[in-house]
Amino acid sequence: ETGVTQSPTHLIKTRGQQVTLRCSSQSGHNTVSWYQQALGQGPQFIFQYYREEENGRGNFPPRFSGLQFPNYSSELNVNALELDDSALYLCASSWTGGLGDTQYFGPGTRLTVL
Amino acid sequence: QKEVEQDPGPLSVPEGAIVSLNCTYSNSAFQYFMWYRQYSRKGPELLMYTYSSGNKEDGRFTAQVDKSSKYISLFIRDSQPSDSATYLCAMGGEGSNYQLIWGAGTKLIIKP
Known about the structure:
The structure holds two protein chains of two kinds.
Chain A: E1 5-7, E2 10-13, E3 19-24, E4 31-37, E5 44-50, E6 53-57, E7 64-68, E8 73-78, E9 87-94, E10 104-105, E11 109-113
Parallel strand pairs in A: 2-11
Antiparallel strand pairs in A: 1-3, 3-8, 4-5, 4-9, 5-6, 7-8, 9-10, 9-11
Chain B: E1 4-5, E2 11-14, E3 19-25, E4 30-38, E5 45-51, E6 54-58, E7 61-66, E8 71-76, E9 85-93, E10 101-102, E11 106-111
Parallel strand pairs in B: 2-11
Antiparallel strand pairs in B: 1-3, 3-8, 4-5, 4-9, 6-7, 7-8, 9-10, 9-11
C-alpha cells in the first residue's frame, strides 16, 4: 500500500458540470502528477506540480487545472465536463518528479460523465 | 501510429510458466524505461526501471531494453496466480519533454 490517497472513489457528473478531485500525497513528496486513464488504455499525463507550481503539462485543454497545497494535498479541477472526460483519474507523488524518480500512485477516482 | 505499442492481450498462461511481455516504441530519444503492474481497482505500481539499455533483474522479474530495435521486454519466471494483473510499459526522455508515455497495458492471467 502506498501512502497516496484519493477522494472520492467514484463520481457521476453531467455534461457541462464542473468537478474537483482530491489527492493526498506521501509525506515529504514535493511533486504530484495527475493522469487520465481511459478504459483499456494506459495513463495519459495531464500535468505535474512541484512545490505548488505547475511544472509540466500534457496535451490537455485549459479546462483541466490543478492546485497543490503545502500540506501535501492537491486538487484536479475539470470545467465544462465532456462525455470523453469519463475515465479513471490517478494522482502520483514523488520526491523530485524526475523520470528516474519512483512515482507512487493512488487508487484513482472513477469519473463518469453522463 | 502510437508512440508506444503494447499488445492488450489477454495473455493466459499456466502457473509456473515463463511470461514474456513486450512493448515497441518509435522515439529514439527515450532513455527511461519502466514496467508497472496494475491490479483491478488499484493504481499502477512500479516493478522495474531501466535507464538507457541493457538488462535488469529483480527476483523473478527481468527487464530488457534493446534500443537498436526500439523494443523492451519484461520476463516473469515461475509465474504465480498473484501475478495476474495488467502490465503497463512506460517510457520517456528528451523526446517526450521528460513526460512518461505509456503503453495500453497487457492483461495477464495466470491459471492455477
